[in-house]
Amino acid sequence: MKRFVGFVRKEFYHIFRDRRSLFILFGMPIAQILLFGFAITNEINNVDIAILDQANDVTSKEIINKIASSKHFSIVDIIQQESSIESIFKKGKVKAVLQFENNFGSNLIKEKQATVQILTDATDPNMANTINNYITSILKNYQQELNNTVSVDYQIVPQSRMVYNAELKSVYMFVPGVMTVILMLVSAMMTSISITREKEQGTMEILLVSPLKPFQVIVGKVFPYIFLSVINAVVIVLLSIFIFNVPVKGSLFLLGFESILFIITSLALGILISTISATQQTAMMISLMGLMLPTILLSGFIFPISSMPMPLQVISNIIPAKWFIIIVKGIMLKGVGIGFILKETLILFAMTLVFMGISVKKYKIRLE
Amino acid sequence: MMKAQNVIEVENLSKLFGDFAAVNQICFHVKAGEIFGFLGANGAGKTTAMKMLIGISSPSSGKATVAGFDVYKQTESIKKNIGYMSQKFALYDDLTVKENITFFGGIYGLSKKKIDQKRCELVEELGLQEVTNSLVASLPLGWKQKLAFSVSLLHEPKIVFLDEPTGGVDPITRRQFWELIYKAAHNGTTIFVTTHYMDEAEYCDRVSIMVNGKIEALDTPKKLKEQYKTDTMNDVFLKLARG
Amino acid sequence: MGILVKNISKSYGKLTALSNISLDVKSGELYGLIGPDGAGKTTLFRILTTLMIADKGQATVAGFDVLNDYKSIRKSVGYMPGRFSLYQDLTVEENLNFFATIFGTTIAENYDLIKDIYVQIEPFKNRRAGKLSGGMKQKLALSCALIHKPKVLFLDEPTTGVDPVSRKEFWEMLKRLQQKGITILVSTPYMDEAALCDRIALIQGGKILEIDTPKAIVGHFPKPLYNISASNMYSLITSLSHYEHTYSVFPFGEFVHYTDKREAMNVEEIKSYLVQQGLTNIHIERTQPTIEDTFMELAK
């Protein structure tokens, strides 16, 4: 028994004297709870929607006001024609469009009922459902108020249409998201250990005392993994198409190009981690905890970014996965061309350059 | 005159990895209180043989007893009755001197009173009064090695196995270390030591030299030098290992 | 094409690794840096190969400054660090090829330089480096350090942990290399290897104890040295430790190396003292000090 106690006491010493194990024990759980607590929410807040008011009468304006004052929605665009609807969805600017038919008000009074079209972007089916329900309930509330003041039973009939994913298949949301996360993780993890491995094995010393330049080392380490990751990406897309029946409405060539870009971005991020980690263990930990968790939570993969508190929304902008998911969903589910995802593409491109640049700068040319 | 007992007896001991015989039917014995040098080139089979003797590796064939216990069936008893120190690991760097002594004392099953007594003796003998509460990591290499050796003796074992204990240590500390070894041997502890310093081979009562899994020489340093007509153990080794 | 070190100091936090070190290695010299672990050898090597920056002092290697001209140094030296640092999962030949290529040369171009060494491992050229024995790893590392015909060769403890046979072979290789005009700076904790160098610097605790040729260093030993042997080594050491005239007593193989506090030692007096202590078979004779004796004396 005494031996056991002596041994346990030693283990306590080791734990408390190792900063890394303390971080895992206390630091990580706290960080995770905060992250999960704020990011995970089934509510929707500040969802961007657009209005197509073909009626332009008192009733339609009253309903629009109600929607504008709801914390759940944020009206970002008023469109004039039906033909604008498709492009606004493709651009990804809004998650729903509310369309009031001509003569909405007069129809309501004369025929005692009028319809409102609710068009929702269903590439994220859960959110689409929620949006639809919230809008419908606002309409129902208005209807109720109206009927309370008058002694007639007016009916406002919402007509819902799910755009891009009529059957609300959740796999449409998951597959692009999973593809993003897998590509990012595998690419980043592979490169994150590559420089640290040289440091740990001692071969880094010899590489330094040679004519090799830092950028040669860094680019050289990224290069082979590009090919390997592309194979990964191809396999994932094939599986999505043939097993999960996820459509690819847009150009496969564009999808391929964007995937390669994202792969390079992830590899560059991995190299960056490699230059700042002293050991392979640290590199792996940073990749898993520092990349995986934020990527899954904050990229919009599962939980809508717009529903999160502002600080998290800002942080989500530096996560490459966020931009790639928009790109992938756009190409696969909405069939967009490069014009609609130009901004996201340029952002990924810029991120890649920044990561590579920082890696070259942080690449230690000496052993301190 | 009382015949000295054999504390280690090895008969045709072998260890095979596939058909490669790392240790090939070695025979020797070690007397109580002897300083026995177990030498050989890297890859000659020294470490493999030693692992079998300290009970952490099972032989493929042959017989051996350590402190009277069988190396096949009584490894736990062997471990309780021997001390072990290797160059690669001996003490916990992130524990203090005091904590290391207390820990290993506890592992060996010593009573608290005994641990305290031993600790005082140890600290006194090695002059570690200033550093008892310092982490072992902060000690110079030579101090670490001397402390590790003393810790391996805490439970007063009959035999102590030392695996290259003085690697890299400065010449003065090396000799101080050997003075500790001499003292332990004088008090009846048997010392089984491997080393790459051939002058240390001269400190031993008897020496064996392993070449390719077999023992090619086994005698006192003096007799070996006579046999191979050389002045130093270094030259004996060179003649033997060169084949 | 030598090495110049002037007043170099380096500390890691509170620990002083090097304290005001100065030395010079002449072009084509085989120069030994002799000292135990923790003496500062690896730190000095890292500063000279431009892997670390000294806190104080200057140094040049092959005429290039270690601080400002580090790129030139990195192109023209060969470096074999303390522990094996080649690619374990590449074969012997692949490793050699890699290092030749990044230095802008080929194996064929400088083959004559490494031939003596490489022929010993050539039969294993398709074996993964990780699966080589210690002695073979050394030879491969040396070949890779030489393949681009460096002007200066830095070998940090190349024989540590290796058995005496491989050590002897390695030094024979170094002597042959020296004849090809390469400046070689070797560090080692083994005092017997020091005798094989042109000049040596004894280093301990970050300070230089002495610099000279091996022969001259031994001449620095201040007192007459005696070999004493007796029936029981332990009793001999303890007896002499308690003897009033003892200046130093250290075991050295089958003898004890003894120096006396007095100018002239009285052999008979010591003999009778030892007999009194119960020792028999006593031999006392004058002997030549070795580098190790000198080191220990200077390190006191």
Question: Could you explain the architecture of this structure?
Answer:
The complex is a heterotrimer of chains A (368), B (243) and C (300). Chain A is an alpha/beta fold and 368 residues long. Chain A has helices at residues 2-17, 19-39, 58-69, 83-90, 104-111, 125-149, 171-201, 203-208, 214-242, 252-276, 280-298, 310-316, 320-334, 342-362, and strands at residues 47-53, 73-79, 96-100, 113-121, 155-163. Chain A has a five-stranded mixed beta sheet with strand order 2-1-3-4-5, sandwiched between helices. The model of chain A has no long low-confidence stretch (mean pLDDT 86). Chain B has a single domain (34-54, 80-242), classed as P-loop containing nucleotide triphosphate hydrolases (Rossmann fold, 3-Layer(aba) Sandwich). A six-stranded mixed beta sheet of chain B has the order 6-7-8-3-9-10, sandwiched between helices. In chain B, strands 2-1-4-5 form a four-stranded antiparallel beta sheet, with helices on one face. Chain C is α/β, with parallel strands linked by helices. Chain C has two domains: 3-219, P-loop containing nucleotide triphosphate hydrolases (Rossmann fold); 225-299, 2-Layer Sandwich (Alpha-Beta Plaits), CATH 3.30.70. In chain C, the strands form three sheets. Chain C has a six-stranded mixed beta sheet, with helices on both faces. A four-stranded antiparallel beta sheet of chain C has the order 2-1-4-5, with helices on one face. The longest helix of chain C has 15 residues, at 164-178. The two termini of chain C are 35 Å apart. The mean pLDDT of chain C is 91. Classes of the chains: A alpha/beta (368), B alpha/beta (243), C alpha/beta (300). Chains in contact: A-B, A-C, B-C. The A-C interface holds A 201-203, 205-212, 365-368 and C 46, 49-53, 70-71, 73-75, 77, 79, 81, 83-88, 99, 102-104, 144.
